[in-house]
């Protein structure tokens, strides 16, 4: 983040929006999430998805994964603005590294009977979704995958009696032996 | 008594706060007492190392601390109570954030067990001040207090300086814990501002500078924040390269206004030569400035043909508004030193004679021209007279915000850094008077003048009382045109001359007001009396309100109309009704 070279990726501000996944390693202290969210709302940046959890309890480290959209110039700004916050250790643009895995978990409730019910089960199987709750007229499926896969599954469930969805948002990690 | 009670590091939270101030070399703080800070005030009462200046409104404490900080290079400290005390600090904190001023604010908070209960004088201080501080802390355990206070001072003063706030609940002030002096481990490991510039980038920059045909140096407040060494190196760089130099509002004084390479300030109300030089240059060296929208004018037409080098300690300043070719992240003093070293070793002074000839033609347009009058004092003339009368004296200037501020920047020549205190980024009317109080506290024997407007000065007028109490002989030089001049100027230019609420219908009699405060009031109407009155103001060793009645309808030029580029300036002699109407057509929405 600190290399001046990163500043070269800047294009005209009329450029189309891009979607980037940012991994942000922060000190887990009161208010740190509010700082990050406040930065986004205060400067008019978008948040498509945000997940946060303590990842190293002993060192009080939390990892925030943010999916955001903006022009390349705005994405560059977001990274710098995050990086200069006092409790932020590192900001990694998982999209730029092109070597990251992104996963999301969703719980999907579907209500129906007869053929719809059978079809929902069949599709769930094809998507490797698990049944984690069932009644005679409903299922709750648990599905993990990237955002597109989950969106697709939800779309398929809609005509089969989709009731509600709970999603975790995106978590991301780099491939290979190195940590961030 | 137990052994432990003799441990000198065992003390109350309130005592720790005073002790930390002393350990950080703080000699003066600005504040206002209240329920949630009484234990701290009790400690202040029982010592004499830290002098407390009682202001009349917490906003005044904040701006005074800012003035103190900017005129000394040391952090300013403000102490306020919970609730309204803290909310009144929001303006100065935001002001300091925008202008990168090191400020440490300590606020009282309701006792820990009442937080979240809507207790008397409770507010979510850290929540409210989160976006207007560089960092802030709520201290819930007295044993964390020393660490947080030391970190607060470090964060405020290191990297890109800025305001910080430490919120201390009243029970934490009463509680006893262990204090420790400042140590390195007090600081977040995640906070490590970069100081040294990248060597490859520095070489690239020198290569551009050495081959420049039409160069310009554009410097900003970062040079002054970096310290005296940066100023010295900037001057040396100008000397070694022979390049022209301009500066932002915040950077005035880093290069002397009497220097031969000085172009004057740039930007919306900058000089024609500075803006034309920026527009037509082939290499631009931006040092410690941030391509603010008052500087750039129309972004897509900003200096279209130049290679841009940008030195800034804050990576988020790079490419925020203007795309640059050679960004160098780090402390500008450090980087200027490296650039100079490489330049001296490997390059020679470029021949830019024809560039200087071009600049001389732009200079000859005399863009700061105004027509003097024998009947009425022109505001520009008033500033020039003030400048002449104080030239060579040990003078500090603060301002409010508006036309008078721009005229001060245009017509008062600053020779040294830290002599010019103005609210640049936030544009806070009411900044100058309390800032002058702060400056005078730091420099008791110097001449401190607030160049003010009649509207701005009334926003924080109550601090005259502070000046009188502490015998601070500040001079409030009011350019009184009975208008909010800059608002009116914009209404004239952009809103069909409908002067909606920009006229002061019931101005106080500033002379009587001064006397009511126990200060000295002076008033002058005639150009012939101006010089004598200014002399009198300077010779009075008490606070003065100087009511300088100036031409009411004078406007501030030259000017880059909104939405226009640097080479589309409106010069004073062109600023007739028709030309201005044309220049401003379509620019209404662009502020």
From TrEMBL, chain A:
The keyword Transferase applies. Residues 21-96 form the ACT domain. InterPro entries: Acetalactate_synth_ssu, Acetolactate_synth/TF_NikR_C, Acetolactate_synth_ssu_C, ACT-like_dom_sf, ACT_dom, AHAS_ACT, AHAS_small-like_ACT. The keyword Amino-acid biosynthesis applies. GO terms for molecular function: acetolactate synthase activity. It comes from the Bacteria. Its EC number is 2.2.1.6. It catalyses: 2 pyruvate + H(+) = (2S)-2-acetolactate + CO2. SUPFAM superfamilies: ACT-like. Keywords: Amino-acid biosynthesis, Branched-chain amino acid biosynthesis, Transferase. It is an enzyme of class 2 (transferase). Pathway: Amino-acid biosynthesis; L-valine biosynthesis; L-valine from pyruvate: step 1/4; Amino-acid biosynthesis; L-isoleucine biosynthesis; L-isoleucine from 2-oxobutanoate: step 1/4. PANTHER family: ACETOLACTATE SYNTHASE SMALL SUBUNIT, ACETOLACTATE SYNTHASE SMALL SUBUNIT 1, CHLOROPLASTIC. Belongs to the acetolactate synthase small subunit family. Catalyzes the conversion of 2 pyruvate molecules into acetolactate in the first common step of the biosynthetic pathway of the branched-amino acids such as leucine, isoleucine, and valine. Dimer of large and small chains. This is Acetolactate synthase small subunit.
